[in-house]
Automatic annotation (TrEMBL):
Pfam families cross-referenced by the UniProt entry: Peptidase_M16_M
Keyword DNA repair found: no
Occurrences of domain Peptidase M16 middle/third (ranges): 1-129
Signal peptide feature range: none
InterPro entries cross-referenced by the UniProt entry: Metalloenz_LuxS/M16, Peptidase_M16, Peptidase_M16_M
Species this chain originates from: Chloropsis hardwickii
GO molecular function: metal ion binding
Protein name per the record: NRDC protein
Length: 163
């Protein structure tokens, strides 16, 4: 089991940054779909999660091939690229996801409660409005570059691994 949390102070600076981060993680997951398929067949599991303060990478499975899968994820992260068509597809999916959160009373109530309790939190309404105003490909590219330049990493490795 390998878990790394790539933390960046950049994410919580604005609602736009949170939306750009969600877009980035979704595109990264989309890009990894085909190359990581063989790992999935070999019973290796991975998950990319857009956490509140950074990207969480979780990988688990048999230890002899796990580093290869982790390296694949890191390679795609470091050489991040996307096409305009993928960008459009992911932003449309995010619009639906955000909207679905807003129309469910229990998730909206949770969001409002956390907004009251946590200092500096951006509401789902802020994120949805930012996304509806439109994101640019250039803004995403600039955000990803800035994100990769301002990272703090926490990691956990469990199992049959050597140091």
């Amino acid at each position: 089991y390998v878990r790394f949390h790539l933390i960046s102070p950049l994410i919580q600076q604005s609602a736009e940054n949170i939306v750009l981060f969600d877009t980035f993680v979704n595109i990264l997951s989309h890009n990894l779909g085909e190359p990581a398929y063989e790992a999935d067949v070999a019973q290796l599991e991975y998950k990319l999660v857009a956490g509140e303060y950074g990207l969480i990478i979780r990988v688990k499975g048999f230890n002899h091939k796990l580093p290869l899968l982790f390296q694949l994820i890191i390679d795609y992260l470091s050489d991040f690229s996307f096409t305009p068509a993928v960008f459009e597809m992911i932003t449309e999916q995010l619009k639906k996801t955000y909207y679905n959160i807003l129309i469910k009373p229990e998730t909206l109530a949770k969001d409002v409660r956390l907004l009251i309790l946590e200092h500096g939190r951006w509401s789902m309404i802020d994120k949805y409005q930012t996304l509806m105003q439109g994101l640019s490909i250039e803004a995403l590219s600039a955000f990803v570059t800035a994100f990769k330049s301002q990272l703090f990493v926490e990691g956990l490795v469990q199992g049959n691994f050597t140091s």
